[in-house]
């Protein structure tokens, strides 16, 4: 006797919903999945009628399903939104070039306008070139900071009112865990918000998938046969997030409500009055929103362009100290005063009598270039398999 769908009690159940563990047929799964996202959009007032919305599109499962579902709901419930696809080309050969092909097909399939912005055009550096320069340890710091700003710049050029991203419930729960482990109060408060950056200087970002399980997004894409790109980035060594993710998956296997429970816990945490929080201001160089004199992207770029790739990587206090050293531009006391190099502006070739020659230059530290994190560590932990227990 086949197991019947717990919703319609008529058709044969095809999967157990990862979120609830209940058996459902394909049609009821689609209906429940879409209704829950519609409910999130409505209750959180994510959009207003007539708004222009850019969907951050990477070609991956989350953003592909987001584009498909937003288009479907926009038509079904007459949201009155003007939807666009916005993609960032980080310049990662063998990864982003292929995934962008998927986005271009999605553009045709969903009939949505597409804009692509590249790191190379915006910053003069591709991720391939950055990794060549900095090695494979802090590449995601550069990539994340640059992508955030690139999305904003793309959104501004499209004149959109909001950016919708495919961050799902697992991503939010993972980020909460990471911020707790790091004691990052400011980020902890921000990461649970369903709308961020809604201050006058920024374009608000919304997360319609905040309560949507990653496994359900995969199941939806799988049953709907959506065209998405599933390969991991070749430079994905983000071990810290990988561990948080593995931990979360272990907990989810024991109790499926873990993901939502963590999100609810994160939402209930609030910062005590009187705790000093970063004050947002504008970057003196590019005008982008920043909690320091210069935004992180400008500091990282400065480092890349000056051959000091570690500038901007790490704690703000250390970064400020490094910046001060660069800006002070102490002249070298050796004869070779005109040539500058490293944090102390001392040429590597400076005579050993030069007092600055002996100082440790972090940017010439050989250890820096050796990958200390195993490649593809993320691959093992991010692959979502729809196991036999979920597909009936
Ligand atoms: Fe960029 Fe790192 Fe993501 Fe690759 S894994 S796209 S380098 S942030
Ligand atoms: Zn059913
Ligand atoms: Zn800046």
UniProtKB/TrEMBL annotation:
Protein name listed in UniProt: Cytoplasmic tRNA 2-thiolation protein 1
Species annotation: Clavelina lepadiformis
Lineage: Eukaryota, Metazoa, Chordata, Tunicata, Ascidiacea
HAMAP family registered for this protein in UniProt: CTU1
Family the UniProt entry places it in: Belongs to the TtcA family. CTU1/NCS6/ATPBD3 subfamily.
Enzyme class: transferase
Locations listed in the record: Cytoplasm
Recorded superkingdom: Eukaryota
InterPro entries referenced in this protein's UniProt entry, alphabetically: CTU1-like_ATP-bd (IPR056369), CTU1_C (IPR032442), Ncs6/Tuc1/Ctu1 (IPR000541), Rossmann-like_a/b/a_fold (IPR014729), TilS/TtcA_N (IPR011063), UPF0021_CS (IPR020554)
Keyword Iron-sulfur appears in the UniProt entry: no
Transferase found in the keyword field: yes
């Amino acid at each position: 006797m086949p197991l019947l769908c717990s919703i319609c009690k008529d058709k044969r159940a095809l999967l157990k919903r990862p979120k609830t563990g209940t058996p459902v047929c394909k049609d009821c799964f689609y209906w429940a999945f879409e209704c829950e996202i519609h409910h999130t959009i409505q209750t959180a007032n994510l959009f207003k009628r007539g708004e222009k919305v850019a969907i951050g599109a990477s070609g991956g499962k989350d953003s592909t399903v987001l584009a498909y579902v937003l288009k479907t709901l926009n038509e079904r419930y007459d949201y009155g939104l003007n939807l666009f696809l916005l993609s960032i080309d980080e310049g990662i050969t063998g990864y982003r070039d292929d995934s962008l092909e998927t986005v271009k097909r999605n553009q045709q399939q969903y009939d949505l306008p597409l804009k692509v912005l590249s790191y190379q055009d915006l910053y003069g550096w591709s991720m391939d070139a950055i990794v060549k320069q900095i090695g494979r340890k802090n590449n995601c710091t550069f990539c994340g900071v640059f992508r955030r700003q690139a999305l904003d710049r793309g959104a501004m050029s499209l004149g959109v009112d909001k950016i919708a991203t495919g961050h799902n419930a697992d991503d939010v729960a993972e980020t909460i865990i990471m911020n707790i482990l790091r004691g990052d109060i400011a980020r902890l408060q921000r990461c649970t918000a369903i709308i961020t950056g809604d201050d006058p200087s920024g374009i608000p970002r919304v997360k319609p998938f905040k309560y949507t399980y990653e496994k359900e997004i995969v199941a939806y894409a799988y049953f709907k046969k959506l065209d998405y790109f599933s390969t991991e980035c070749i430079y994905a060594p983000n071990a810290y997030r990988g561990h948080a993710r593995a931990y979360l998956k272990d907990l989810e296997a024991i109790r499926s409500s873990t993901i939502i429970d963590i999100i609810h816990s994160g939402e209930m945490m609030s910062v005590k009055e009187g705790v000093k929080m970063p004050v947002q201001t504008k970057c003196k160089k590019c005008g982008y929103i920043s909690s320091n004199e210069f935004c992180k992207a400008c500091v990282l770029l400065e480092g890349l362009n000056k051959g000091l790739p570690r500038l901007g990587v790490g704690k703000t206090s250390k970064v400020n100290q490094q910046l001060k050293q660069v800006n002070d531009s102490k002249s070298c006391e050796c004869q070779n005063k005109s040539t500058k190099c490293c944090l102390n502006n001392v040429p590597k070739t400076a005579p050993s009598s030069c007092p600055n020659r002996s100082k440790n230059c972090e940017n010439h530290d050989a250890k820096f270039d050796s990958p200390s994190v195993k490649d593809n560590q993320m691959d093992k932990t991010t692959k979502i398999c729809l196991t036999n227990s979920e597909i009936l």
